[in-house]
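Holo prediction — succinic acid.
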Amino acid sequence: MVSLSHPTRRLLTVNVSTLPLRSRTYPRLALYRMASTAASAFGLKDGSLIRTQGFIDGKWVDAKEGGTVTVTNPATLEELGHIPEMGLAETREAIDAAARAFKTWSKTTAKQRHDLLLKFFALMKEHEDDLARIITLENGKPLAEAKGENAYSASYLEWFAEEAVRTYGEIIPSAISNLRNVVVKQPIGVVSLLTPWNFPSAMITRKLSAALAAGCTAVIKPPAETPFSCLALVELANRAGIPPGVINVVTTNGNIAEVGKELCQNPVIKKVSFTGSTPVAKLLTGYASSTLKRISIEAGGNAPFIVFDDADIDAAVTGAIACKFRGSGQTCVCANRIYVQSSIYAEFASRLAEKVAAFKVGNGLDKDTTHGPLIHDKAVAKVEHHVEDALSRGAQIVHGGKRLPGPGSFFAPTILSDVPTDALINSEETFGPLAALTKFETEEEVIKLANDTPFGLAGYFFSRDVGRVWRVAEALEVGMVGTNTGVISQAVIPFGGVKQSGLGREGGKYGIDEYTNIKYIAFGGL
Ligand code: SIN
């Protein structure tokens, strides 16, 4: 192992045996090159937003064993840089650092936390172009969409800064004459935040800003596919003055199982917040149950999208495009099953196909690109499998239907019609740019179809009949309903699902409660 300072005085440590042979002779040079190559691969105005190390107790650190994980651009498969392959030892250090910091951070005033979160928010705005570029390069989504994600992400900081100072308690009228009942909210403690690659920035701030506002400290495990957005945010949090140990980041790919398990089992952790797939959510919930931790889960979706014959068809097409193809279909809330009433089915399909045909799929940095690549080849293979399965059961291709030439992981935006209800698409989230259309006849029939799934995150429908709007909104078994809109996500709303789509709510006035304990204090002897 060698330790050294590179020109920006960051301490870098690496296991020389993992370096290429030429680099072993010049380890200082190799380390400097690894960090500076990553910074230049992003082409930012402020290259120091690219951090290639984990963050523990206010310091940027490498993996103890010296290993690294390569991060690539899904549009080109070119290498963007490396992050440390951390493991159990670094995870425990991060948890201990967060526990030490909790002693003081939990005692700061709500106003102090509010002010720091707003400074962090202002820095995200100031660096919005660079932050969006990082999102596009590591996730693939087009630059305009990445800017939208940055604004969405920053809005959680602003929202929870404002919630921090409104974490009110309560006085409850007493049933005993010489007693007064007071309820206060206290920060829950050290929390683990495990986040996905589809929103490399917004899923960090959605959790982190609520945790910090409540007075909790955090250990974040960002996804190995898109770690640089998380690390850039932490760099900005550091610049904003958030004290050492309050935010810690452990990066890994190969050791994800042991790191994830520790983040859910370690008794110091008091709460786990996870966004990702339902099978992983179940595994983590099992670990967290060993010490009865609080847990928030935002898992798989499989959202129904229903168009009734009294709908404004153009509005429904616009809504379907926003909802189905945002992030190239890689969102938990995107429409997976599109049900269209029989009398308007053909018209809806043809207007949708006309719009989808105008999409420009490509590298998110190109200004004409409307839709980017999928995150990796496995994601492309899943969409391909869902298309093949539906076709084998009688569905028809209206548009697309194939992989697109690389080198990145591209799949053509696809519309299938006459998708039978036993197709895989109906039971599994595709997580890709595949709009699967199925015809229905009656409201009763479509509600039954929509609810025939173990998932219940979001559901959408278009209708101009006010009675139907109420009936269907109440009948859908989901945590979030979009009526006459395909866009629902905002920091101000309670985001979350029912059934196997999740536990708890993120955002809105409910979001901070996930990070607080309610304490009742009886004042006796009056
Ligand atoms: C997700 O896909 O997990 C989040 C989507 C959103 O916040 O809109």
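READOUT: The pocket of succinic acid is lined by residues 198-199, 202, 275, 298, 331-333, 489 (CB under 6 Å).
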